[in-house]
Protein: ABC transporter
Amino acid sequence: MAEAIIKTENLTKKYGDFCAVDNLSLTVYKGEVFGLLGPNGAGKTTTILMLLGLTEPTSGSAMVAGYDPVRNPLEIKRKVGFLPDRVGFYEDLTGRENLLYIAELNGLRGKTAERKAAEVLEQVGLSHAAHKKTYTYSRGMRQRLGLAEVLLKDPEIIIMDEPTLGIDPEGAREMLNMISFLARERGKTIMLSSHLLYQVQKVCDRVGIFVKGKMIAQGPLEDLYRQLTGDKFVIELQVGNGNDQLEGILKNIEGVTSVEKERGLYLIHCERDLRQRITEEIFKKGYHLLHLHLQGYSLDDIYRRYFQSQEVVERW
Ligand SMILES: Nc1ncnc2c1ncn2[C@@H]1O[C@H](COP(=O)(O)OP(=O)(O)OP(=O)(O)O)[C@@H](O)[C@H]1O
Structure:
């Protein structure tokens, strides 16, 4: 069975009467990428700060890599690397010099420190900029240098607050690839927070969805999607020459459970992925296919359903 490496029970943080994190109970397993997802102000950063022992919970408890962040903040600092959403450096030093400084603070010196700095710079794709002063770095480069700093410590767990925020799409993709690599190839456990749902969904094994301090759902995206829709598959179809018979034709396909029509788009609910079968049938009947799409386990779909329907949010 997978080993829990982060576990919180009824973790709560109040600022006066305002509850920033409300009875959070979550488990993150060793080696997984867990996404803490939700809009701005949902309580993601506050949760991270509690896990790092940087702010005390009002009530509830947390266990991170076997330690209680309130009682053992130094152990947590040793085991957990943290990449904040804005990383600070000594701007007049080069990337490499900044790393050597951090290496020294972590007890690494001389050739060992230099070797390690070169290694992590290589890992984050910054070798070419190692000798440039950090004030010349772009935001994406700063994030990568921040990650290099984290990797110097070789932590068991890496927590990242909005790792792709403000980075161009190419840079964001590279950052996400690095996250995947660190989890899959290096066995790191990664928790990241984000409100950029479509971006991070590809790398997260499981996600927790946060709204107004409450975690309203957690699990693999696929499960969350199924819980929400109750369907296994929904296929969108649009044809150029639809007529009254089409709905009946679609309903008659074996495996189709129901068909809805929404502004010229047919939503075909099916027991399995019937795209090929549907395509064959509509061609056979002489319809012109304009659009055929299997609604995926997209976080955007989940986000829309949870957040944009005020009714649902209130119910939760
Ligand atoms: N020190 C504080 N004092 C009072 N309220 C705070 C404090 N820190 C955070 N909050 C409030 O707690 C709520 C949660 O903030 P938090 O930063 O955890 O959200 P978030 O999900 O990380 O969002 P963002 O991405 O915008 O940082 C917000 O409404 C914020 O204004």
